[in-house]
Amino acid sequence: MPKNIFSRVQSRSLTRHHKIAMAGVATLGAAAIGFSAVPSGASTKTTTEAAQPAAVAYSTQQIKDVKASVTDQMAGASLKAEQIAAKKKADAAAAAKKKAAAEAAKKKAEAAREAKEAASRAAKRAEAKKAAKKTYPNNLDGWIRESLDVMKKHGIPGSYDGIKRNIIRESSGNPRAINNWDINAINGIPSKGLLQVIPPTFKHWHVPGTSWDIYDPVANITAACNYAADKYGSMDNVDSAY
Question: Which domain of life is it from (predicted)?
């Protein structure tokens, strides 16, 4: 029984001793670690003063730099937007100018085309008018008017009234009239036609472009007027047999 008590006491004593030993070892170990962490040239002096927290330094320079960077970026974006807007405006103006120039050129081309077509139509009308042969009534009035147009082309003087007056006196307006009783008839060359022209006179004073038939009204009038213009100045000056 006592043996067992001793054993328990001894066991508790050893245990306490062991604890103390272990605590000492831990203390020595911590001291060794602390000593090894101190640089060789550093002082090992300990102090009871509490380590003061290091002051934190704040700088506004970085904030200023950030604000400046943001401002520059905004200014650059604004400038770029203005440049884009200016380019769009310039492109729109150029497109409008190009469109206006194209419309002006189109109008000019249309005006030139219309003028050309109008000139072509006028030329065609003139050609058609020129090609269309002027017609005259087949009567005394028509014969005199046609004769006057032929005389005008050849510069032969005479008037409507002068020609008609002499026609009425010479043949009464009969294109087939013939004189078989005057001296010309006696000589075998009777006067014929509206203005009673003898064949030799008709042949000599015949006007180009008219018929060679002495009984043709227009040919007879123009030949007689051509002769009268040479001898009397104009058929208007003839008041009797000529």
Answer: Bacteria
